Amino acid sequence: MKNLLTQIFTWWNGQTVGTRLFTWKHGTKVGEDELGNIYYEGPMTSWGKPKRWVVYNGYAEASAIPPGWHGWMHYRTDVPPSKEDYKPREWQKPHQPNLTGSALAYRPKGSLAATGERPRVTGDYDAWTPGS
User: Fold this and answer.
1) Could you list the residue range(s) of the whole structural domain that residue 8 is in?
2) Contact, 27 vs 15, CB < 8 A?
3) Which of 27, 52, 95, 120 could connect to 23 by a Cys-Cys bridge, CB 3.0–4.6 Å?
4) End-to-end CA, the chain
C-alpha cells in the first residue's frame, strides 16, 4: 500500500503511476546498471529517434546515471552498455550523491556555514561605520 501511495503522490522516488503504465505499454527493457537503475527504450519521437528513459532505484537523481548509460540516454551512442563491453575511462569517477544541504556538503574556507572561526580581515578593507 505504501509503495502505491508513493507512486501516486511523489515523482522523485522511483516511478510514478503514469511512468509505470507507459513503460508497461510501450517500454522495452534495454538494461540495468550497477546501482539498480533500469533503462528502457520506446516508440519513435517526433525527431525520429526512439524515446529513452530510466526508472531510478530509489530517489530520482540524474547524477546517479553512470557514464556509459549517460552517453546512451543522450543519443551519443546507439549501443547500450549492456550490449557491449563498456569500460569507464580512468578519469571517470564513480557516483557520489549530491550532498548539498547535508552535513557532508562542501563548505569552503571563509564560508558562514563552515566550522571554526572566520579569518580576520586584512588591511585592504575598512568596515563602514555610520556617520563616517
Assistant:
1) 2-83
2) no
3) 27
4) 67
